Amino acid sequence: MTDFLDLEQVRRNFRRAAPGYAGADFLAREIDARMQERLDYVRLTPGWIVDLGCGPGLSLSGLQQRYPAARCLGLDQERAMLPGVAQAQGWRRWLGAGRERQPAYLVGDANRLPLGARTVGLLWSNLLLPWLEEPRPFFREALRTLEVGGLLMFSTLGPDTLKELRAGFRDGHAHLQRFADMHDLGDMLLESGFADPVVDMEVITLTYQDLPALVADLRAAGARCAMRDRRRGLAGRSLWQGLQAHYEALRQDGRLPATFEVIYGHAWKPEPRQIEDGRSIIRFAGR
């Protein structure tokens, strides 16, 4: 597997953005609201809900209102993004608190979740995938931790995201993240062992008065480029002027467009087909 993402840079970007992130993630909040509307059509009674890449935990309030009997946990790889982190002993006490319904928060790696197998009813992930090296390890961990009949629900961004900005850079360096295609994600879910995957897409277009306003929003939301082949030094004046000229040609009704290809996906944890020693499970229908 090609090592194209600088994961430490991802953490640094969100560490810098953490103090003002809750007021800057308006796009993530809009996508979260649209994800939660999709739960209207899902029959699910989760005992445990885990929000992966939860940031300050803003998704969990809506999920708790929808599933008031569930206990909620938020995980993020950057400690500074979390509203509070449980220590190991305190976390164990929280697990045993039968009536406790306040969310808990942990620092955790989405590819190595600090969760037991078959323990979670709903795994929620809003815009985490663009900050992972590859989706498949995450999908395999999600399958491991979900209980049979549990649901993985996620959103991510597709290749047309910020296409206007991407086309304006011509210096041979990466300036934006690499985004997976919707159809590839569906195949990966099946390869990872999920059942009945559903993946669809919509386009959200934001508009800006000028290019610096767009760049400021991306930085405030922690969405700086973390690719290994990104430009390490400051961009020169000619590069910035060329980018602005390219973008100005796209101005409509006095505003500059910023396209976001938003991908939504969900899939279910099926009954196992094998036991742990690799032997297959064969089920016979009763007469």
List the helices and strands and how they pair.
Elements: H1 7-17, H2 26-38, E1 48-52, H3 58-66, E2 71-76, H4 88-96, E3 104-107, E4 120-126, H5 135-145, E5 146-157, H6 163-167, H7 182-191, E6 195-208, H8 211-220, H9 237-248, E7 256-268
Parallel strand pairs: 1-2, 1-4, 2-3, 4-5
Antiparallel strand pairs: 5-7, 6-7
Helix pairs in contact: 2-3
CATH superfamily of the domain at 7-157 and 180-202 and 262-268: Vaccinia Virus protein VP39
Helix content: 25-40%
**Shape type:** globular
Oligomeric composition of the shown chains? single chain
- In the predicted model, the low-confidence regions spanning at least 5 consecutive residues are 87-94
Strand order of the largest sheet: 3-2-1-4-5-7-6
The total strand number stands at 7
Mean pLDDT: 86
| SSE run | HHEHEHEEHEHHEHHE
CATH class of the domain at 7-157 and 180-202 and 262-268: Alpha Beta
Assign the CATH topology of the domain at 7-157 and 180-202 and 262-268.
Rossmann fold
Measure the end-to-end span: 49 Å
Describe the main β-sheet briefly: 7 strands, mixed
Q: What's the number of helices?
A: 9
**Derived structural class:** alpha/beta
* Known CATH architecture of the domain at 7-157 and 180-202 and 262-268: 3-Layer(aba) Sandwich
Q: Tell me the fraction of residues in β-strands, as a range.
A: 15-25%
Q: How big is the Rg?
A: 20 Å
Detailed description of the structure:
There is one protein chain. The protein contains nine helices and seven strands, in the order H-H-E-H-E-H-E-E-H-E-H-H-E-H-H-E. With 287 residues, the chain is of the alpha/beta class. It has a domain at 7-157 and 180-202 and 262-268: Rossmann fold, CATH 3.40.50. Helix 2 (26-38) packs parallel to helix 3 (58-66). Mean pLDDT is 86; it is low at 87-94.
